């Protein structure tokens, strides 16, 4: 080690001499969390190694790639496809603005896919350079924990090498999961959906989460027929009920067929494609059936049970507030811990880990007021509490401010789609507890609002901010009168949709 | 008050808004019939709007406002001596807001406005004002229209292709835009009516501190509010009669083939983007080296580059001296550097002037500044105690939301017994250039002047969309932090969706939040906006004087600025 390591975190009892180990830190998994933790630990003076599976767009037990889910099979390729899909509706919108768009418009899925793969390869390279630039040693192969301070890397040719490390960090993420129904192998997951050979003409999607609604929007925007099935009466469980209704309405308005409260029972192969049987007895034949039915932590092949690392029922690694497992030298961050499965959260956990273990600054990640976005078209973005959560947690009354309006662009395009915004305010303290928006640019708009919420901004502070005119975002600072007042502990509040 | 009666008959309000038959006795308005009839703009359905409702309210409010005034220092006479508690001249953003809020507080309010026209003049204007008719709204609609061409280009990189390149039809756009403006004018009128304020058509002129003349009829008011806005100004050079201003540019009969835009302010860059997007040849002539004087220097540089990359010709330090019309009908622009010819249109975006002429202001003793703006105190009061002014006519910060704030504050001051100063600090604003700009707080130069020691964080990146589209689009972001307090005192962005993105950050800056607060906020991934909460290392630290604990690297960084 060239530099002397900085003071270890208080949680480190061992205090053995550094030279006993090959590395101060060995990280398994080079996704968002793992790369961040490695880089920041190295910057704090630690000698760091990281291992990752070989690169491939579709993940499995033995393939992955530097960059992880976000870069290869998640946020980035998804957003690229959302951009691609957005042009379809844009062309429709252009007509009333005077654009004579030829009826013969062609969309070439293969071209988009190729460009997407190029971009992902480029990012994969950037991530690798980030690691080498930070002085982190990268091993390609499957990592396994074989002792509290020992990791084994199974290389591509099958040979195994083991390394000792003072700390082991598991950041192996998660993987898409299929529903255990007959014919499940005929369906695909989001991994394959991001790399399909052909654009589906007719897609069936099962799931009500963000992945389901995003793919529904992507394929629909590219011209496919889409049937979306989910178990609840609205998609996006966990989000504000009123916003869920808006999303459902918008998906429908853009031509996606919704099948609420419906499950898939069985898939079978037919000449026309995959036949889907629903629990309502309905039959649909589609070329693609996507399971967007949740993700499962990648904890199985890590040999964790043998070493004594505790997992929860879902297979997620149990950690304390500093991301430490029950084994003091073994830590875990990101989706494999199933806390809040978002890239920026994994980054935060990685940073906190590096500060705690190698920066001498014990730091627990703060999960309050984390904004997130669903990139359906138009997108939904939220920060803080939903109305239901606020009412549940409230001691006093909650004020709900809503605004539903026709975005200016639609006044000429003629698109029949409203934007909705909502603020949830504590009546007594005037603090803004939650903000949500469904409409164009919601994700971009919400970022600044998130700072305000994080810092406990009041409704009065929102109002004292002058609007930017004409924008959609200005509506957040010009909502003058409450739509309704909800008393704490009351039954499910009525929505005004 | 009981004797005050209004008679108003109304015909078809669509083409010529109704002249109201008002009867006067001793300078006071008399009502002979308590009903107003209007025709809804959007349908032929007749609406019968009854002011009968508003009269009992007005009675109550009079008592209310009288009480308020007894406590305030505004005036000595009871309001019942006047026809109105508030008479507003000008029904633009500021005037409508002040009038509505005043009426909601119980005041008896009248508003006058000139007849509708898309191009403003001494005798034409229209309810809605600059923002709705000749500014923000039509401008933004044209920006939307013109942005599509960029999207067509982008879409190629995402797999989309067209048999023939999409062509734009100007007349469809203008017809649809004007239909939307008519709809908005109708909405504004309804908003006023519903608030109980009375709308009068005609040119308001101040006769004395409590009297307004409209078309020869006199109305008395306890308070007069001037909210007449501003108007484009074209400097007097040879051939200036061939030039158009922004009013005309928003409503041209045909699309320019090649346009010269004179000026480097936000109007100039916005129109440059509009016409460039709609495939006109665009040449921008600016006196200075850079566009957008007053904006952050780096943002000015960045926008200039991006506009050039999109095909706009920027002629810097080139001042027009004359416009010459040649025999083929095309216009040439003579400048200090030579002649550029072949223009179908020459547009001047060379500033706006307050509409203070022929209002009778000088005669009643309202002080004006050198540029003709009405001088007001912090409460928007002029040098004549009963006369107030809000919006562009005061030339403070000429933005719609600021006029709204000033109007709202004035209504509170006058009629809610709540003296309120509009707060002009940390007002965010946007320029709808392509790409657009959003900003709040101080520029780097202003920050250095005001705080001395600052840390500057910048980010200049290629957005995800551009990596696929292959276009040279980039995004620039900048945070300016006070070194002593860690407060974010300036935030700037140029890139797609800047205007939408900056609004939320404006709340944070207005609330005085620190860089640490920004850092503690988790990003929304993948967005452009998340860059503002993930800027870890200052690009430079600027220190006014060497301080004790100053490190070498700081000194180098500062020297490198």
Automatic annotation (TrEMBL), chain B:
Which one GO biological process term can you cite for this protein? Answer: cell redox homeostasis
Instruction: Name the source organism.
Output: Salvia splendens (Scarlet sage)
The entry lists its GO molecular-function terms as: flavin adenine dinucleotide binding; glutathione-disulfide reductase (NADPH) activity; NADP binding
Where in the numbering of this chain does the Pyridine nucleotide-disulphide oxidoreductase dimerisation domain appear? 427-535
What residue spans carry the region label Disordered?
538-561
- This chain belongs to the protein called Glutathione reductase
Task: Please tell me whether the keyword Disulfide bond is annotated for this protein.
Answer: yes
Give cofactor(s), names only: FAD
As for family, the record states: Belongs to the class-I pyridine nucleotide-disulfide oxidoreductase family.
* InterPro entries linked to this entry: FAD/NAD-bd_sf, FAD/NAD-binding_dom, FAD/NAD-linked_Rdtase_dimer_sf, GSHR, GSHR/TRXR-like, Pyr_nuc-diS_OxRdtase, Pyr_nucl-diS_OxRdtase_dimer, Pyr_OxRdtase_I_AS
Annotated binding of FAD, by residue: 140, 204, 392
| A Pfam family it matches | Pyr_redox_dim
Q: What does this protein do?
A: Catalyzes the reduction of glutathione disulfide (GSSG) to reduced glutathione (GSH).
Q: Which domain of life is it from?
A: Eukaryota
Q: Which reaction does it catalyse?
A: 2 glutathione + NADP(+) = glutathione disulfide + NADPH + H(+)
Which residues take part in binding NAD(+)?
263-270, 351
**Is this entry keyworded Disulfide bond?**
yes
Q: What is its EC number?
A: 1.8.1.7
Domain FAD/NAD(P)-binding stretches: 85-407
Gene Ontology terms, cellular component aspect?
cytosol; mitochondrion
Which keywords does this Swiss-Prot/TrEMBL entry list?
Disulfide bond, FAD, Flavoprotein, NAD, NADP, Nucleotide-binding, Oxidoreductase, Redox-active center
Q: Name the cystine pairs.
A: 131-136
Record: active site: 525 (proton acceptor)
Enzyme class, broadest EC rank: oxidoreductase
């Amino acid at each position: 080690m060239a530099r002397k390591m900085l003071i270890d975190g208080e949680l480190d009892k061992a205090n053995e001499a550094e030279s006993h180990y090959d590395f101060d830190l060995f990280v398994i998994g080079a996704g968002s969390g793992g790369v961040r933790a490695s880089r920041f630990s190295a910057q704090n003076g630690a000698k760091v190694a990281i291992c990752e599976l070989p690169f491939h767009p579709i993940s499995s037990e033995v393939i992955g790639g530097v960059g992880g889910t976000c870069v290869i099979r998640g946020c980035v390729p998804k957003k690229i496809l959302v951009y691609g899909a957005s042009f379809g509706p844009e062309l429709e919108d252009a007509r009333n603005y005077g654009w004579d768009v030829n009826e013969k418009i062609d969309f070439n899925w293969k071209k988009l896919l190729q460009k997407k793969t190029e971009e992902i390869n480029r990012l994969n390279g950037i991530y690798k350079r980030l690691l080498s630039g930070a002085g982190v040693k990268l091993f390609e192969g499957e990592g396994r924990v074989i002792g509290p301070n020992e990791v084994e890397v199974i290389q591509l040719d099958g040979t195994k090498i083991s390394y000792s490390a003072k700390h082991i960090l598991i950041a192996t993420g998660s993987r898409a999961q299929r529903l255990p129904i007959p014919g499940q192998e005929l369906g695909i997951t989001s991994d394959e959906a991001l790399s399909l050979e052909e654009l589906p003409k007719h897609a069936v999607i099962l799931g009500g989460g963000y992945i389901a609604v995003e793919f529904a929007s992507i394929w629909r925007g590219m011209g496919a027929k889409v049937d979306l099935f989910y178990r609840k009466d609205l998609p996006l469980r966990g989000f504000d009920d009123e916003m869920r209704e808006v999303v459902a309405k918008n998906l429908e308005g853009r031509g996606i067929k919704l099948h609420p409260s419906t499950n898939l029972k069985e898939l079978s192969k037919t000449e026309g494609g995959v036949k889907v049987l629903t629990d309502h007895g309905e039959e649909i034949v589609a070329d693609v059936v996507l399971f967007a039915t949740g993700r499962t932590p990648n904890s199985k092949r890590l040999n964790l049970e043998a070493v004594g690392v505790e997992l929860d029922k879902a297979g997620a690694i149990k950690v304390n507030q500093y991301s430490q497992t029950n084994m003091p030298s073994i830590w875990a961050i990101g989706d494999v811990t199933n806390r809040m499965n978002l890239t920026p959260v994994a980054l935060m956990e990685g940073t906190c880990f590096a500060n705690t273990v190698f920066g001498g600054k014990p730091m627990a990640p703060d999960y309050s007021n984390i904004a997130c976005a669903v990139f359906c078209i138009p997108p939904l973005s939220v920060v803080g509490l939903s109305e239901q959560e606020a009412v549940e947690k409230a001691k006093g009354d909650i004020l709900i401010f809503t605004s539903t309006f026709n975005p200016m662009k639609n006044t000429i395009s003629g698109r029949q789609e409203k934007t909705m915004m909502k603020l949830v305010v504590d009546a007594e303290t005037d603090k803004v507890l939650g903000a949500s928006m469904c409409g164009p640019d919601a994700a971009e708009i919400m970022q600044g609002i998130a700072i305000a919420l994080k810092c406990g901004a009041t409704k009065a502070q929102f109002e004292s901010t002058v609007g930017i005119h004409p924008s959609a975002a200005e509506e957040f600072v010009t909502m003058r009168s409450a739509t309704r007042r909800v008393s704490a502990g009351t039954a499910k509040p009525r929505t005004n949709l | 008050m009981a004797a005050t009666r209004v008679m108003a008959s109304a015909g078809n309000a669509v083409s010529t808004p109704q002249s109201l038959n008002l009867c006067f006795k001793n300078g006071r308005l008399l009502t002979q019939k308590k009903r107003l009839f209007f025709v809804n703009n959007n349908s032929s359905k007749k609406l019968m709007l009854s002011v009968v409702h508003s009269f009992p309210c007005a009675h109550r409010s009079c008592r209310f406002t009288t009480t308020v005034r007894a406590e305030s220092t505004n005036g000595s006479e009871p309001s019942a001596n006047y026809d109105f508690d508030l008479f507003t001249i000008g029904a633009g953003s500021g005037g409508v807001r002040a009038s509505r809020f005043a009426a909601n507080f119980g005041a008896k309010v009248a508003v006058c406005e000139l007849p509708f026209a898309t191009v403003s003049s001494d005798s034409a204007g229209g309810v809605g004002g600059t923002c709705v008719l000749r500014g923000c709204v039509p401008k933004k609609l044209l920006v939307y229209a013109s942005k599509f061409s960029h999207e067509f280009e982008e879409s190629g990189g995402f797999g989309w292709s067209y048999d023939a390149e999409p062509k734009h039809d100007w007349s469809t756009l203008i017809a649809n835009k004007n239909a939307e403006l008519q709809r908005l004018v109708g909405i504004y009128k309804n908003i006023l009516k519903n608030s109980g304020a009375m709308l009068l058509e005609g040119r308001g002129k101040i006769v004395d501190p409590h009297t307004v003349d409209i078309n020869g009829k006199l109305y008395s008011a306890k308070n007069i509010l001037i909210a007449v806005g501003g108007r484009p100004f074209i400097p007097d050079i040879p051939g200036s009669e061939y030039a158009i201003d922004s009013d005309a540019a928003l409503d041209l009969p045909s699309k320019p083939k090649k346009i010269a835009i004179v000026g480097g302010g936000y109007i100039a860059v916005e129109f440059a983007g509009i016409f460039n997007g709609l495939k006109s040849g665009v040449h921008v002539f600016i006196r200075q080296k850079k566009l957008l004087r007053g904006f952050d220097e780096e943002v000015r540089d960045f926008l200039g580059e991006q506009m050039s990359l999109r095909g706009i010709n920027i002629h810097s330090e080139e001042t027009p001296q004359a416009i010459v019309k040649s025999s083929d009908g095309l216009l040439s622009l003579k400048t200090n550097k030579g002649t550029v010819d072949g223009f179908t249109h020459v547009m001047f975006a060379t500033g706006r002037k307050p509409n203070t002429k022929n209002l009778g202001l000088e005669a009643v003793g309202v002080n004006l500044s050198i540029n003709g703006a009405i001088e007001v105190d912090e409460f928007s009061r002029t040098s004549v105690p009963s006369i107030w002014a809000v919006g562009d006519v005061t030339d403070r910060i000429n933005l719609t939301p600021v006029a709204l704030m000033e109007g709202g504050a004035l209504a509170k001051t006058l009629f809610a017994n709540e003296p309120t100063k509009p707060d002009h600090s940390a007002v965010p604003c946007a320029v709808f250039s392509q790409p657009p700009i959003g900003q709040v707080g101080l520029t780097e130069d202003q920050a250095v002047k005001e705080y001395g020691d600052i840390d500057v964080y910048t980010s200049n990146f290629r957005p995800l969309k551009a990596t696929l589209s292959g276009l040279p689009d980039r995004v620039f972001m900048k945070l300016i932090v006070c070194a002593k307090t860690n407060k974010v005192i300036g935030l700037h962005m140029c890139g797609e969706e800047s205007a939408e993105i900056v609004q939320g950050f404006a709340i944070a800056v207005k609330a005085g939040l620190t860089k640490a607060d920004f850092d503690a906020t988790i990003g929304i991934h993948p967005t452009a906006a998340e860059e503002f909460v993930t800027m870890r290392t200052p690009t430079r630290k600027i220190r006014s004087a060497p301080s004790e604990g100053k490190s070498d690297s700081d000194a180098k960084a500062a020297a490198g600025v």
